[in-house]
């Protein structure tokens, strides 16, 4: 019995030593913070949803003044983190980028984007990487953009001609309609080898209305996304509208793809974007692309490719009409560099720093995606000493950063000169300078960033160089916003134009 007693004592001593050792090691190690970021209390069950109102980007910017650069809101049954300063955005989109590389499930991805089979909402993984790679190689990357530069020139010619005809008839130009008509045809030629709208009219206007509706409803804070157990009730009637809109888009895109496949023999030796994508249908089991992926990708490129860039250009023209001295200085720069006997070329853009400053200032004050597209945390993490749980949704308030007086001097003023000298002169909107991230940043930065910058600078430059701009007699300039995935003008810009160049240069 004595050996057993000794053994028991030794075991007890060993156990006690083990427990004491664990206790002291844990006591000495830094304890992970479990404190959530500050934020509003919200309401029972629905949380902070009512606090967001009709303009969530504005409401969240106001909250950030009280709660700080990183906020945490309970929205329904979901947690949402909001980054409201450049440093906070950098922490989420650069330092913790891989942890926030997925999108949260939502009705827009399900009902509009073919159940997230597109590139925008797809899960971060092999299929998304393949779609992104193909898009960069054959449409959105530098070489691809150079390859279809002649299409941009031609389609701008068609748009200028239509605008000049309106001018000769003393009719105002509805800027958004003209831009949508031109951009949809640019993208249609690259993707499908055809102008999707041969003439500007009811068909192109209907498409514009559909795109605006998609961007608007996809930006709604849908109760069903945040309280999934009641999603089936569709209390706001949002999902029903999404389903009806999807049917319209699906019919349009299905017909485009069908016609494209039937005319394949006409493109022998001259493949377009869809030809290249369809040639890569099967890379491996993980990267197998389906017809649904193709249609979802076309939907991405048609909608985001037309609406985001056109909204930036429309806001820029609006600000220039509001501030005639800016328009005058832009005209003077272009007349000095280009003259008035030809249209602007893309090769002229690097020689037009004031035009580029106008574009940057518009990206700052009127970002096309005010809250960026939402992301979700794959694992729990820590930001600024605060605990961010797993499956937390992330919104980066790009609009709020652009209007922050701690970041920008006189942020409510439209002042392109801020980007010509000093610390702001080197700021670039391509995702590395977090003071100005209109396209987002990190792995899920907008795939069309390069294309978007080219289109905005080239088309805006062409419109400014080609025409004088003024409001129709007796009208007032409306600067109100309409919230959605893209930040539209609440009242589209309608303006009178006068040609500044010889009529011969307006032809396609």
UniProtKB/TrEMBL annotation:
Gene3D superfamilies (UniProt xref): Cytochrome P450
Function (record text): Catalyzes the 3'5'-hydroxylation of naringenin and eriodictyol to form 5,7,3,'4',5'-pentahydroxyflavanone and 3',5'-hydroxylation of dihydrokaempferol and dihydroquercetin to form dihydromyricetin.
PANTHER family: CYTOCHROME P450 98A9, FLAVONOID 3'-MONOOXYGENASE
Pathway participation: Pigment biosynthesis; anthocyanin biosynthesis
GO MF annotation terms: flavonoid 3',5'-hydroxylase activity; heme binding; iron ion binding
UniProt EC number: 1.14.14.81
Keywords recorded for this protein, A-Z: Heme, Iron, Membrane, Metal-binding, Monooxygenase, NADP, Oxidoreductase, Transmembrane, Transmembrane helix
Chain positions recorded as heme binding sites: 446
Homology family: Belongs to the cytochrome P450 family.
A Pfam entry, by short name: p450
Cofactor field: heme
Ranges annotated as spanning the membrane: 6-25
Domain of life, per lineage: Eukaryota
SUPFAM superfamilies: Cytochrome P450
Catalytic activity from the UniProt record: a 3',5'-unsubstituted flavanone + 2 reduced [NADPH--hemoprotein reductase] + 2 O2 = a 3',5'-dihydroxyflavanone + 2 oxidized [NADPH--hemoprotein reductase] + 2 H2O + 2 H(+)
Organism listed in the record: Escallonia rubra
Name of this chain's protein: flavonoid 3',5'-hydroxylase
InterPro entries xref list: Cyt_P450, Cyt_P450_CS, Cyt_P450_E_grp-I, Cyt_P450_sf
